[in-house]
């Protein structure tokens, strides 16, 4: 059986990938299956650079086709921050602290000025391919005045979707994948990867 690895330790991302990126043709693993795999330092300045770092570190270790996601939240009133630094916004990768800092930095900013987007870059690297396959996705929304919902991860409870009158954390994994940055990027990947890959 062919194997593909998703180079993530984030259980929320792993769940989203597993729910839409699957096929009888291959088995999907993530770094949660290899807890001993060391932390990959995300030293890039862009989502694409970081996704490449993660995809190549894991591909080289396992010699298997590997997909990495690097993603983040860009808030207009904060000039695009936290952006590439979304995971480390309030220090060390702590969702609750990140959300609290976001609410505090946006204190006093009215609803119509709380526009934001989630952005995701996926890099697919494979041992027999010289070039990586790179796709991107985004979704626009508003940063809520308070958190709502228990599903999802990261900034989902604060990411409000006006058309649905729900936050990202109030959607099921399938509903989120249908509209999210990562869902859009995975849909693009689905259309391209089988023609691209050299197994
Ligand atoms: O759908 C999302 N819903 C909510 N928050 C999200 C989402 N997508 C990215 N985010 C936030 C979480 C984290 O603060 C940062 C990603 O950082 P990023 O380095 O790409 O992921 P990560 O460190 O959690 O896992 P990993 O690097 O192992 O894939 O942006
Ligand atoms: Mg990370």
Automatic annotation (TrEMBL):
Cofactor or coenzyme needed: Mg(2+)
Enzyme class (EC, first level): hydrolase
Keywords: Hydrolase, Magnesium, Metal-binding, Nucleotide metabolism, Nucleotide-binding
Alphabetized GO MF terms: dITP diphosphatase activity; ITP diphosphatase activity; metal ion binding; nucleotide binding; ribonucleoside triphosphate phosphatase activity; XTP diphosphatase activity
Reactions that this protein is recorded to catalyse: ITP + H2O = IMP + diphosphate + H(+); dITP + H2O = dIMP + diphosphate + H(+); XTP + H2O = XMP + diphosphate + H(+)
Residue ranges of the TM segments: none
UniProt binding sites for substrate: 8-13, 71, 153-156, 176, 181-182
Cofactor binding: number and manner: Binds 1 Mg(2+) ion per subunit.
Entry EC no(s): 3.6.1.66
Residues given in the record as Mg(2+) binding sites: 70
GO cellular component: cytosol
Gene3D superfamilies, per database record: 3.90.950.10
InterPro entries in the record: dITP/XTP_pyrophosphatase, ITPase-like_fam, RdgB/HAM1
SUPFAM superfamilies, per the entry: ITPase-like
Example GO biological process: nucleotide metabolic process
Location of the active site: 70
Function: Pyrophosphatase that catalyzes the hydrolysis of nucleoside triphosphates to their monophosphate derivatives, with a high preference for the non-canonical purine nucleotides XTP (xanthosine triphosphate), dITP (deoxyinosine triphosphate) and ITP. Seems to function as a house-cleaning enzyme that removes non-canonical purine nucleotides from the nucleotide pool, thus preventing their incorporation into DNA/RNA and avoiding chromosomal lesions.
Family statement: Belongs to the HAM1 NTPase family.
NCBIfam families: PRK14822.1, RdgB/HAM1 family non-canonical purine NTP pyrophosphatase
Subunit architecture: Homodimer.
The name this protein goes by in its record: dITP/XTP pyrophosphatase
